[in-house]
Design brief:
The chain has one domain (9-226): Aldolase class I (TIM Barrel), CATH 3.20.20. It is globular, with a radius of gyration of 16 Å. It contains ten helices and eight strands. The chain is of the alpha/beta class. An eight-stranded parallel beta barrel has the order 1-2-3-4-5-6-7-8, surrounded by six helices.
């Protein structure tokens, strides 16, 4: 059955990074993070060869499908298609959005990284389903990004577009509340979850702050209710 993109919950968006996972596998990290409240997962592999990426993706997809949680593939549209993943996330220097959409079709999720209102409006007009504001704060996981959006940069982008916004870049339990309050629909987290000793608890704490900012309780809320009013 095709996924209903309107019901996707971006509240706690886990992005994997095996280098930061303290020797634990992506399967271990993802399983624990989902138990803690992760609502969507991006499999990010910059160094694996195609076969290894695909085989890992099959294992991850099986875990997430059983929990009805979307799987997003970073950059690699070929891997996303081979896995029949729920979508991809692309940057400004990756495959053009219109080409990605043509390859994936209308039912798949496509997220695009942006840093300002102009890029956000262009991506929305081009058919992006959500935007990754990157980076909210400068982060060691993406050293190539030296300019940060900051909390003050979120509202102008929020006013510029109607589609969901997810912020990435040093997101954790200490700033999730303020980031959501500034206009994000969710926070995307790498080291704030995957590097923690207790992955499940780290995810739980961040999710609680996201829900507090949205004025919702952690339990008993359906994905549709988690969407911010635009």
């Amino acid at each position: 059955m095709a996924m209903n993109k309107a019901l996707v919950d971006y509240s706690l968006y886990l992005v994997t990074d095996r280098k930061l996972s303290r020797g634990r596998t992506n399967i271990e990290i993802i399983s624990a993070a989902v138990e803690g409240g992760a609502t969507i997962v991006q499999l990010r592999e910059k160094e694996l060869d195609t076969r290894a990426f695909y085989e890992q993706g099959l294992k991850v997809k099986a875990i997430l499908d059983a929990r009805h949680i979307p799987l997003i593939i970073n950059d690699r549209i070929d891997i996303a298609m081979a896995l029949d993943a729920d979508g991809v996330h692309i940057g400004q220097e990756d495959m053009p959005l219109n080409v990605a959409r043509k390859l994936l079709g209308p039912e798949k999720i496509i997220g695009v990284s942006v840093i300002n209102p102009r890029e956000a409006q262009t991506a929305e007009a081009g058919g992006a389903d959500y935007l990754g504001l990157s980076p909210i704060f400068v982060t060691a996981t993406k050293p190539e990004l030296t300019n940060q959006i900051g909390l003050e940069g979120i509202p102008p982008i929020r006013r510029a577009v109607r589609i969901p916004l997810v912020g990435i870049g040093s997101m954790n339990e200490t700033n999730a509340y303020d980031a959501i309050s500034a206009g994000l629909d969710g926070v995307a987290v790498i080291s704030g979850i995957v590097s923690r000793e207790n992955v499940r608890e780290a995810a739980r704490m961040i999710k609680a702050e996201v829900m507090r900012a949205k004025g919702l309780y952690l339990n008993g809320v359906t994905p549709g209710e988690l969407r911010r009013d635009q």
